[in-house]
């Protein structure tokens, strides 16, 4: 069983945190983020530059929310101070991406280009035509957008063509034999 909840969340300099009612608020250089707290299951307190989360009871649901709440608060604090980045790579002849204004244009071997509108809270850039960098303060949102873009042309196992995460390893298959 994970014991991630027993560790405090360190608050870096330049980030202010507060608990307003049943909401946790973090402000930093990347903006402001809010998260609802489950006050009936966990106790959240701010002591100096640390945020502590404690379960209110020994019930299974309270213990589950203990670690989950601590992890969500940690992601919120890290998001407003540093932000999150997911890098995608495009492999394939003629496959490319470009950011034009608030639209990501993808040429992925279809008869038409795919235009993906970039949300306001997300920043995208293409340093190379075969690399996409997605940045934002919400870890879940950045990951979801990266997964949506990857789903347009996922990597295939024979030639490795498609969009993949930078850290992803594609298991390659051997082609048919004569």
From TrEMBL:
Keywords: Ribonucleoprotein, Ribosomal protein, RNA-binding, rRNA-binding. Residues 11-83, 92-165 form the Large ribosomal subunit protein uL6 alpha-beta domain. Pfam families: Ribosomal_L6. The keyword ATP-binding does not apply. It comes from the Bacteria. The keyword RNA-binding applies. GO terms for cellular component: cytosolic large ribosomal subunit. GO terms for biological process: cytoplasmic translation. GO terms for molecular function: rRNA binding; structural constituent of ribosome. Belongs to the universal ribosomal protein uL6 family. Part of the 50S ribosomal subunit. PANTHER family: 60S/50S RIBOSOMAL PROTEIN L6/L9, LARGE RIBOSOMAL SUBUNIT PROTEIN UL6M. This protein binds to the 23S rRNA, and is important in its secondary structure. It is located near the subunit interface in the base of the L7/L12 stalk, and near the tRNA binding site of the peptidyltransferase center. This is Large ribosomal subunit protein uL6. It comes from Magnetospirillum moscoviense. The gene is rplF.
